[in-house]
Design brief:
The protein is mainly alpha-helical and about 170 residues long. The protein has eight helices and no strands.
Length: about 170
């Protein structure tokens, strides 16, 4: 995982708005991706990403440089997503992506053979659907670890710090 220059964090802590904007720009995509993987709805993920950055803005002064800044921000992100999911569960409500909704991740692929593109799109959707169905069979802890390790590419130590779970428990899951 890439890490932002620590000087940007220090400047943001001192109230430098440009430095904080740089933090948002640097982490925006990863934070939004994590939110989307937890909430499974694009609009909710975008709203949650805003909440994450608002929370980071309010509490950046408490960051003590004892861990990587990315670990700190991802922990905030995961905790807010978990809280949101808990609210959904209490309401017995969970919104998922519509079958008709097209994935728009901003990437444009130029392929001459449209049939090949269509086949790949179908394969991607089927694979994604299968993963999401299987993910539902895991415990909450296993889901969190799977999302961070296998979908986001975090190392075990980072996951341990983000979820505040002992490293041995992460590795054995």
């Amino acid at each position: 995982m890439r890490e932002i220059d620590i000087e940007q964090v220090k400047k943001a802590q001192k109230g430098d708005k440009k430095a904080f904007d740089n933090l948002i720009t640097f982490y925006r995509q990863v934070v939004t991706d994590i939110c989307y993987k937890y909430l499974r709805n694009r609009e909710d993920a975008l709203d949650m990403a805003q909440e994450v950055f608002y929370s980071v803005y309010k509490s950046i002064g408490t960051f003590e440089f004892k861990s990587r800044f990315s670990t700190w921000i991802y922990r905030i992100c995961v905790n807010l997503c978990i809280n949101k999911l808990d609210k959904y569960k209490r309401r017995k409500y969970y919104e998922t992506e519509s079958i008709d909704e097209k994935k728009d991740d901003g990437m444009q692929i130029n392929i001459a053979d449209e049939k090949s593109l269509h086949d790949k799109e179908i394969e991607y959707r089927e694979t994604r659907e299968l993963i999401m169905k299987q993910l539902a069979h895991l415990t909450d802890k296993e889901q969190k670890i799977f999302i961070l390790r296998d979908m986001q590419g975090f190392e075990y130590e980072e996951i341990s710090n983000i979820l505040n779970i002992p490293l041995g428990s992460i590795k054995s899951t």
